[in-house]
Design a protein that fits this description.
Length: 437
C-alpha cells in the first residue's frame, strides 16, 4: 500500500495540513497499511475544522471501504463498512421504507465520521443522536479487530461514540434503521417573526423533523426572525431532484459583504408566504439542501470560513438571545444560520447534545470573526452550554472540562486503547484533549 503526500483541509478550508495518506480499498489491506503503527482515520472530511487533520503525520482515508455487508428486513439492522455515506444509505433504503435513524445536514458524511462525532439531526428532540442507534461498532485496536456493543462494552462504546476516533479505527458498524413511509417529504414552512416566537414554536412542535433558519443579521424587534420547517416522510410521486451544480472558483470577498448578506436574508425570509405553505420534496432536498451545490464552501473565498455552533440548556434562552444579539450587531454572519431544539439523548462521553437549543452560524474567515467566536464560546460556557467539535476550528480547549463533565471518563478509556497517542489529530492537540492533566 502506497502512502502519498497531500495537502488536505477541513470543510471550512480555514485550516489545512500536509500529511501522508493511504487509501485502502479492502479491509484486508488495513494490516499492511498499519504495519508501522496506528494512524488517525478520516472520511470525507466534512467536519469544518481540523478534526480529521494530522499535520506532518499520516492519515488513513476510509472512503473506499464503503461496502454494504448485510441487512435484516425484520429487525432493520444494516451492517456497513465505515466509509459508506449516509446519503447513499438514504438513497438506497428510503424507497424500501427505511432511513438512517439520524441524518446530519450533509449526505456526504460517512458512517465512521457520524460515529466519531455522534451526529445529530432534525429529529434529535424525539430520538436522540446517531450513536444511540447502533447495535455494534467494529474497531481496529492495536492491529486487532474488536466488535463492541453498547450493553456489553459500555465504557469503551461511550468513549468511541463522539470520541473523535481516539479509541481505535472504526471499520464497520451495525445501524438500527428507522422505518419510514417512503422517499418523499411533506414539508410545512412558516415565517417566524422573532426569537421568542421561534423558541415557542420549537418547543411545541410535534413534527418528526423540525429545523429553523435564522436571519442572523436581523436586529431589534426582528431579532431571531426566520423560517420554521417541519417535515414528515411520505410516499408518492415527486419531481426528481434538480441537477447538482458546482462552485468552480473561490468567490470574491464582496460576495458575502454585510449589505449583500442582509439583502439575501431579507429576500430569503420573504420567499415563504405570510400564511405559510406546504411542499412536497425529494427526501434528499430536505435533509441535505446544500449537497446539490458541490464545493459550496468556495463561496467564502480562498480564506475559508469558521462555524460557531453551541447548545445551551432550556433555562438559558436569555443567554442564547444575547449570543444572537452579539452576532447580529457584529455584521459578520453569513446567510447560513440554523436553530434547532435538542432533546436529552446523546451516545457518548464527548457527545455534543444536551437538552436545549442549538445555534449554528457561519462566518467568513476574517480577523474580526476570529475575535468574535471566542467571545461567543465564552458566553455559551457561562450559560452552561458547550461547543461542537465537528464545527470548531478556533477554541483553545481551556474550558472543555467545564463543557463536558464526562471528559475524564473519555480520557481514561482512550489512554487504555491508544496509550502512545498514535491516533491524535490536530484538533486533539489544539484542544489539549490528551495532554497531561
Amino acid at each position: 500500500m502506497r502512502w502519498k503526500n497531500d495537502t488536505i483541509h477541513g470543510w471550512g478550508r480555514a485550516l489545512s495540513a500536509m500529511c501522508e495518506i493511504a487509501r485502502p480499498e479492502k479491509s484486508s489491506e488495513l494490516a499492511e497499511v498499519l504495519a508501522d503503527g496506528a494512524v488517525p482515520a478520516m472520511g470525507n472530511r466534512r467536519s469544518y475544522g481540523d478534526a480529521a487533520l494530522n499535520d506532518d503525520g499520516r492519515a488513513l482515508d476510509m472512503t473506499r471501504l464503503d461496502k454494504f455487508l448485510a441487512f435484516d428486513d425484520e429487525t432493520g439492522v444494516l451492517s456497513v463498512e465505515a466509509g459508506v455515506e449516509l446519503g447513499e444509505i438514504t438513497r438506497l433504503f428510503a424507497p424500501r421504507g427505511w432511513l438512517p435513524p439520524v441524518l446530519p445536514g450533509t449526505g456526504f458524511a460517512t458512517v465512521g465520521g457520524a460515529i466519531a462525532m455522534d451526529v445529530h439531526g432534525k429529529n434529535h428532540h424525539h430520538i436522540g443522536s446517531f450513536g444511540q442507534h447502533l447495535a455494534s461498532i467494529t474497531l481496529l485496536i492495536n492491529g486487532k479487530s474488536r466488535k463492541i456493543k453498547p450493553d456489553r462494552d459500555a465504557g469503551l462504546f461511550k468513549a468511541t461514540v463522539g470520541g473523535l476516533g481516539q479509541t481505535g479505527i472504526i471499520v464497520a458498524a451495525e445501524i438500527i434503521m428507522l422505518p419510514c413511509k417512503g422517499d418523499v417529504m411533506m414539508v410545512t414552512e412558516r415565517r417566524v417573526e422573532g426569537f421568542d416566537e421561534f423558541l415557542t414554536l420549537l418547543d411545541g412542535s410535534e413534527a418528526t423533523y423540525t429545523v429553523g433558519w435564522i436571519d442572523a443579521t436581523a436586529k431589534g424587534s426582528a431579532l431571531g426572525r426566520g423560517i420554521l420547517e417541519e417535515g414528515e416522510t411520505g410516499s408518492g410521486l415527486v419531481p426528481s431532484p434538480g441537477r447538482s451544480k458546482s462552485v468552480p472558483f473561490n468567490a470574491p470577498k464582496f460576495a458575502l459583504s454585510a449589505p449583500i448578506v442582509k439583502l439575501f436574508n431579507w429576500l430569503y425570509y420573504r420567499r415563504v408566504p405570510e400564511h405559510g405553505r406546504t411542499l412536497v420534496k425529494p427526501i434528499s432536498d430536505f435533509f441535505f439542501p446544500l449537497d446539490k451545490i458541490h464545493d459550496w464552501n468556495r463561496l467564502y473565498g480562498k480564506n475559508g470560513f469558521h462555524q460557531f455552533q453551541c447548545v445551551v440548556p432550556i433555562n438559558s434562552a436569555a443567554a442564547l438571545r444575547e449570543i444572537l444579539q452579539l452576532i447580529a450587531n457584529s455584521g459578520l454572519a453569513s446567510p447560513l444560520a440554523v436553530l434547532k431544539r435538542m432533546g436529552e439523548g446523546r451516545g457518548g462521553y464527548l457527545s455534543f447534545p444536551i437538552e436545549g437549543y442549538t445555534l449554528a452560524v457561519d462566518f467568513p474567515n476574517t480577523e474580526a470573526a476570529r475575535v468574535l467566536i471566542p467571545r461567543l464560546e465564552a458566553m455559551a460556557v457561562e450559560a452552561g452550554g458547550r461547543i461542537y467539535f465537528a464545527k470548531d476550528s478556533l477554541s483553545k480547549g481551556d474550558k472543555i472540562a467545564d463543557m463536558y463533565p464526562d471528559y475524564s471518563d473519555w480520557r481514561k478509556a482512550v489512554e487504555k486503547t491508544d496509550p502512545d497517542r498514535n491516533l491524535a489529530t490536530d484538533l486533539v492537540r489544539r484542544l489539549n484533549l490528551r495532554s497531561a492533566e
